Amino acid sequence: MRLILLFLFCSASFTGCTQNTSKKSTNTSNAADLKVGASCEGCEAIFECPVPFPQLNNTDTLPGFTLSGPAILVTGTIYQRDGHTPARDIVLYIYHTDLQGRYATAGATKTWEKRHGTIRGWIRTGADGTYKFYSLLPASYPNSQNPRHIHPIIKEPGKTEYWIDEFVFDNDPLLPAAEKNRNKPVGGSGLIHIADQNGLMVCRRDIILGLNVSNYPN
Fold it and tell me: What is the pTM of this model?
């Protein structure tokens, strides 16, 4: 069943299933970009995207999706600061743990894969601002009380890369109540609800650029 699902996903969005196969990245930071957001160790990992940003599309399938485990589809729309206008040409970088709660690597020592693991992906929105990615449900860190989560980093044209609140799952017993009711969620609420659709766990998170992001212009 998983292979059938993957075939259908790839057929619907070929680039999304192949955009991470190249080994060379041509993406770089721009010294002229407006500095926004708080200190963000590892945000530069967004530039390790293996293909040029303009060649990305709005869909990605993260490594490991064909393995046995709970499959998820995360969707949403990225909006401009007004919360209504879809934002295009926004790069979203995501990464998370594997089924054992580890950021497993393939022996990488010189890139952020050493810290972020191999389960990571890159997406670029089109005119409608939508995005989606397929993966397996991340696990909590081993022997910890940390809730399961997905790390997101945003890159807008003309602005430096910045982090927003992690994707967290509302049915996670390890998720503290305070995390469910953040007063000023960065980028909008990261709390997502899972709905089972024929064995695929589907969840949605909309993102508002600059919301509660420090140094972000009005």
Answer: 0.90
